[in-house]
Amino acid sequence: MTHEVKSAKDDAGVTARHNARMARKKEVVDQKIAAAKRDAGVLVITCGNGKGKSSSAFGMVARALGHGMKVGIVQFIKGAIPTGEEKFFRRFPSEVSFHVMGEGYTWETQNRERDVEKAQIAWERAKELLTDASIKMVVLDELNIALKYKYLDVQKVIADLQARPAMQHVIVTGRGAPPELIDVADTVTEMQLTKHAFAAGIAAQPGVEW
Amino acid sequence: MTHEVKSAKDDAGVTARHNARMARKKEVVDQKIAAAKRDAGVLVITCGNGKGKSSSAFGMVARALGHGMKVGIVQFIKGAIPTGEEKFFRRFPSEVSFHVMGEGYTWETQNRERDVEKAQIAWERAKELLTDASIKMVVLDELNIALKYKYLDVQKVIADLQARPAMQHVIVTGRGAPPELIDVADTVTEMQLTKHAFAAGIAAQPGVEW
């Protein structure tokens, strides 16, 4: 058997096994899709220590805008420096209402009373979005941090989330999502840190981190 | 001691402890920031089974556009249905070059030869972006799947990634990132599935999933 003939046979084997595996996979995926038929506004939580929590929310904003949906964004903690996402989404004032309500990370502000007060004002703003059925997606960026430090009462937040319009999607981001919130969410992803450029001495890059 | 006085004392204690903790945290964060000074184009990988891999990449695109950067996007696998992200980012043709090179997920196409061929054409398109220093961020969406099924050679892909302009950021998404690629990446997040609305019978919602 020449090398060439053997390779051709191997390739045919790889292709046949791949095709068989893909056929089984298609069956499983098709069954799942057939079962998942209901439309509903979903509550998505992105948490964990890894990079990607807020950026995932802003990617969903881009998707929603592509589908002609109106979006509301409240940033609970960020706000000390103007971010790329803020600059960009403010270009579309009739499609996106963007509210920067924070003054930086809480370890920067060093003032708990002020953090609590700011979080409560931010929640009032969020509630305006959560009672407006014309807004199809609401991003509550870093809300988890405000809940973790008990700047807001988690039961009140959950009650307001559950009273929202039926087809409105809500994305909540940040480390330290409380278990009560995870319980009532539809989709939850924990962003696990495998590695971060920060540890290798690379500064937070515009476009990537802010 | 009245209840009111006790509460006030407790509150003062909570605030004092919180402030002390935040002061320590600020010290640690400040030290890390002082150490991370270098600017560089970073290679970011988002992988794992959870929701948020591609959406995180599209959020970084929004950030980059906010900073006035030009962005290139190649979608390796998706392409069977028009997505929200495609519709949205195609609004900005002078800022975003958007290339949909796939024909759907591989278990949908059921044709390995064709998948390999499409992936190789897509990589040629990616290489055009990876050799253009005016493009400040390149998204290679679902590239990990093409690597996992060996539609592309991982060593060739790594060589081309490492030859890119020094300040260009690259975001690679998809399940099954090969260990060789993780080794050379700067920032890697594994999106861990805690729960997904799909399992509760909710169909993939526009804006959220596509």
TrEMBL record, chains A, B:
* EC numbers, comma separated: 2.5.1.17
Which molecular-function annotations from GO does this UniProt entry contain?
Answer: ATP binding; corrinoid adenosyltransferase activity
Q: Name one GO cellular component term.
A: cytoplasm
Annotated Gene3D superfamilies: P-loop containing nucleotide triphosphate hydrolases (3.40.50.300)
Its UniProt pathway annotation is: Cofactor biosynthesis; adenosylcobalamin biosynthesis; adenosylcobalamin from cob(II)yrinate a,c-diamide: step 2/7
Provide the primary localization. cytoplasm
Q: Does the keyword Nucleotide-binding apply?
A: yes
What Pfam families does its record include? Co_AT_N, CobA_CobO_BtuR
* InterPro entries linked to this entry: CblAdoTrfase_CobA (IPR003724), Co_AT_N_dom (IPR025826), P-loop_NTPase (IPR027417)
Q: Which residues form the Cob(I)alamin adenosyltransferase N-terminal domain?
A: 16-33
What reaction is this protein's catalytic activity? Answer: 2 cob(II)yrinate a,c diamide + reduced [electron-transfer flavoprotein] + 2 ATP = 2 adenosylcob(III)yrinate a,c-diamide + 2 triphosphate + oxidized [electron-transfer flavoprotein] + 3 H(+); 2 cob(II)alamin + reduced [electron-transfer flavoprotein] + 2 ATP = 2 adenosylcob(III)alamin + 2 triphosphate + oxidized [electron-transfer flavoprotein] + 3 H(+)
Q: Where in the cell is it found?
A: Cytoplasm
Listed GO biological process terms: cobalamin biosynthetic process; porphyrin-containing compound biosynthetic process
Keywords in alphabetical order:
ATP-binding, Cobalamin biosynthesis, Cytoplasm, Nucleotide-binding, Porphyrin biosynthesis, Transferase
From which residue to which does any coiled coil extend? none
Q: What does the function comment of this entry state?
A: Required for both de novo synthesis of the corrin ring for the assimilation of exogenous corrinoids. Participates in the adenosylation of a variety of incomplete and complete corrinoids.
Q: Which family does the UniProt entry place this protein in? A: Belongs to the Cob(I)alamin adenosyltransferase family.
Protein's UniProt name = Corrinoid adenosyltransferase
What organism does the UniProt record list as the source?
Oxalicibacterium faecigallinarum
